[in-house]
Amino acid sequence: MTSSLVSMIAGFSCFMLAPCSAANTFKAAEELKLRDYLLPARDRLVLPVLDRAEKAKFAINLTIQADHILDMTVDSNGVLWLDMILCMNWNASSLMWDPRDFNNVTYTAFYTNFVWSPILEVHEIIIPQSAFAISQYWKFRMVSWNGYTEFCPQVHMPLSCAIEESYDAFPAEEFNCNAVIKDVSPMSHIQHISINEGTSPGKAMRSFFTGSGFELLFLQREQGKNSAMLRAAVRRNSRQWMNSVTVPVILIGLLSCISLWLPDQTPTRTLLFCFALIAILLLQIQLYSRHLMHCSKPPTVLSLLGQLVVGQLLIGILVIFEVSLENSDSIRRLYAQLDFVYSHSVVHKYAEWTRVNFFGWAFEKFDEEVDPNESQKNPQEETPMSFLFFAGITIRFFVTVVSLYNILSFCVMLL
């Protein structure tokens, strides 16, 4: 009774569902017959028997497509790994058959232990965790009616990069890497094996690694006699640094430049603002250095922050010198000697000529506020052409120019 019920249910299912049709059942039987015909208990490590002519024509082709490149990661040892689907195909005349003998079946799929495949010496195959994923994963091998066989495993491929270059360089320095794909190990009896690979355009790859922080600029092949060299140009994706590094650095750089030209404040306020900026800059250096200091080249961001620290230190030293000038007789005498030497030097004449011909508009208000009689009574007083004024304006000018140049270069490198 039970068997009759099962038969009725099965019959009704086959009547209602297309996969249970007689044609599909017959086709599946023919595919099974074809597999049994082609591969009777064949060892996957043993190459199908080829005669001399077939050996001469035998070729292994590696195909890399842009949408088969999955991810790029860096392990704890600093090794760069490329996760990708590497499709291998090879021609073997012994795998050919007449489709008419098998209900016009043009291809059939196998598990990996049913068909021989090349064993690459460079990659590690990633096996999924779930049993269902494993069963799906191992069905990537296919034999076509003309003898074409394909196997597309997902590989975890290490890239060897030049020592003097760094993939963590900021903001986005390009570096070159390579991976040598050697021929299969158990095929020493095969005289000529060629490995070919389809190169994908760089534009199709640039947007793949925005999540991991990398951009693959190009991936191309260099063919050797028994090996193929994959060359990759990689760089950090600058967009991943935008919120954490780029914006804070540009803002603190502009703030440092603006602070140099603020209206005159009391020495105490100037020093507090100056050393507050230095503290913020040092904190940024400490935060970013753990990620960037191991780079082989001095990172641009750390160089810029260091230059801003030096500029603020020079301004702080200048303010401290001005305060000491008012409270110390020895400092006042030292400054008088420096100002005397400066006033009789070529530098003073050049500064005066530059002021009159180029920056006279900037000193008009200053000249109106300064009393010449007072400046003669107090030589240490800051006058438009005194040594103290010249040193201050020179430091501010060069620090501002260098800072703005570095900030502009920094922004250009991010493009």
From TrEMBL:
Domain (Neurotransmitter-gated ion-channel ligand-binding) ranges: 34-182
One Gene Ontology cellular component annotation?
A: membrane
List keywords of the entry alphabetically. Answer: Membrane, Receptor, Signal, Transmembrane, Transmembrane helix
What the entry lists under InterPro entries is as follows: Neur_chan_lig-bd, Neur_chan_lig-bd_sf, Neur_channel
UniProt GO MF annotations:
extracellular ligand-gated monoatomic ion channel activity; transmembrane signaling receptor activity
Which residues does UniProt assign to the signal peptide?
1-22
Q: Where are the transmembrane segments?
A: 241-262, 268-289, 301-321, 387-414
Domain of life the protein comes from? Eukaryota
Fetch the SUPFAM superfamilies from UniProt.
Nicotinic receptor ligand binding domain-like
Record-given protein name: 5-hydroxytryptamine receptor 3A
Organism of derivation: Galendromus occidentalis (western predatory mite)
